[in-house]
Amino acid sequence: MSSGLDRLLGARLPGPPEGARHGPFREGTFSSPLHSERRAARVGLWLGLAFTVCFLTGLTSHLIQNPPGWFYWPASPAWLYRVTQGVHVATGLAAIPLLLVKLWTVYPKLFEWPPAGSVSRAVSRLSILVLVGACAMQLLTGLINIAEWYPWTFFFTTTHYWTGWLAIGAVAVHVGAKAPEIRRGLARRGTAGAAAGLTEEQAVERAAVDSAAEYQSVSRRAFVVAAGLGVGAVTLTTVGQSFSPLGAVSVLSPRVPGLGPQGLPVRQTAQRARVPDVGADYRLVVEGPNRLELTLVDLAAFPQRSERLPITCVEGWSASATWTGVRLGDLLEKAALPRDTEVTVESLQERGLYRKSTVAPPHAASPRTLLATGLNGSPLDPDHGYPVRLIAPNRPGVLQTKWVTKVTPV
Q: What is the Rg, in whole angstroms, of the alpha carbon atoms belonging to the chain?
C-alpha cells in the first residue's frame, strides 16, 4: 500500500490540452535549473529575514508614536531610534530586488497544469496571491513615501502599519505551508534526498538537476553574485541618508545630511505648515500650579544648554546637530511640576496630525531634552521651528514638535 501511495504521489500530472501547448505552457519552456527549489528556498530565506527585520523595526516606530500603556521607550542611548529606523528603511529598500529575484525563481509555477487540481491547491495559490500582493504593496508604497509622492487618498502611516501585519502574517503562513520544500531547498546537496524522504530514483534525479546547474551559462555563483550586487547597489546608493559617512555615494537618498537650512534637512517647512508669523506678542505657555507665560527674552534668562543630538525622520534619513535652549525639566520645575511629568507639547501650526506630541516621563526628565531656540550656533530658522522647538533624545522627528507655543501636563 505504501509503495502504491509513493507511486501516486510521484506521478506526473497530465499536461495542458493541445490547444494550450504553446508559449509558457509548452513542454521544456522553463529549462533553467536556476528556477529551482534550491534557489527559491535560499532567496526566500534572505527575503524572509529582511521582511522580519523590517516588520520589527517598523513596529517599534509605530509603538513609539502610538504607545500603549505597557510600552516603554528610553531616552538613551540618543542614537537608538536613528539605528532602528535607518535599518527599517534600508532593509525595506534591499527587499525590493530580493523580492524581484524571488519572483523570478518561482514564476514558472504560475503556468503549472492543472492550475488548481484540488481545493487545497486552490487555497494555496490564493494564499500566495495575498502574500505577493501584500509584500509588493508594502514595498512599493514605502518607496513612494520616502520620495514624498502621494498619488493616493488613504493615510499612508495607517495603511503601511496594517499592510505590514498582513504581509508578515502571509509570510508566516507561506513558510508553514511550504516547510517541506524549504527544508529540501536548504538541505546540503549530498543529504537533500535523505532529508526530504525521497526515493532513491527521485534523489538521483534531483542530484542530477542540481549538478547540471553548475554547467549552465548563467551559473549558480553568477546568479548569487548578480542578486547580491543588486541588493548592494540599492543599499549603497540610499543608506547614506542615515549613515553619514556614505552620504557622498548615496545618490538616490531623498535627504542628504548637510543640505538644508543651517546644514540640516527639512521635512516640513513653515510655509507648508502654514505657521503664522511670530511677533513680539509671542508667548510660550507652560501650564501648572505656577503657570508660566514666557517671552523669548524670558527664555533667554534661563540657563542655556547645548546638546549634540540627531534628528531622525521616519522616512529613514537622520543627521546630527548642536541644539541650544532651555531644559524642559527646568521649565516644568519652575511651573511647580515634577521634572518627569508627562506633558503634551503644542505647536503654532494650526492643523496637521503632528501639531501636538506627548513627551513621556523618561524624555521629560532627561537633561538632554530641550526647548531649543538655537541650532548650530545660530537662532532657529523658521523651517527648523523658530521661535522654539522640542528636541529630545531617541525620538522620531515627527515627535520633535516645531513652533512650540504651549506645554500642558497630561
A: 28
Residues 186-234 have pLDDT tens digits of 885 544 344 344 555 555 555 555 555 444 545 677 878 888 888 988 8
Task: Give the distance from CA 253 to its chain's centroid.
Answer: 15
Distances in Å between the Cα of 214 and the Cα atoms of 28, 34, 46, 166, 209 are: 19, 10, 22, 38, 9
Classify 394 in phi/psi space as left (phi over 0), alpha (psi -120 to 50) or beta: left
- Residue-wise pLDDT for 117-147, tens only, equals 777 778 778 888 899 999 999 999 999 988 8
The pLDDT tens digits for 261-320 are 998 888 889 999 999 989 889 999 999 999 999 999 999 999 999 999 999 998 888 889
Architecture of domain 262-409: Alpha-Beta Complex (3.90)
Nearest to 262 by CA among 400, 347, 397, 383: 383
Angle CA(254)–CA(230)–CA(315) in degrees, nearest 5?
25
Pairing of strands 370-375, 389-391: antiparallel
Which grid coordinates belong to 408? 500642558
At residue 375, φ and ψ (nearest 5 deg) are: -140, 125
From the list 204, 203, 223, the residue with the least C-alpha distance to 213 is 223
Per the omega criterion (within 30 degrees of 0), is the bond before 367 cis?
no
Residue 366, CB-side half-sphere exposure with 13 Å CA sphere? 23
Q: Where are the domains of the chain?
A: 24-246, 262-409
Grid cell 548569487 in the structure block, residue: 224
Give the 3-state secondary structure of 325-349: EEEHHHHHHHCCCCCCCCEEEEECC
Q: Cα separation of 338 and 402, whole Å? A: 24
Assigned C-alpha cell, 138: 508594502
Nearest-5° Cα angle at 215, 211 to 218? 115
**Would you say 264 and 321 are in contact if contact means Cβ atoms under 8 Å apart?**
yes
Residue 133 DSSP code: H
Q: Can you tell me the distance from the alpha carbon of 377 to that of 380, in angstroms, rounded to the nearest whole number?
A: 9
Is 327:313 a contact under the CB 8 Å cutoff?
no
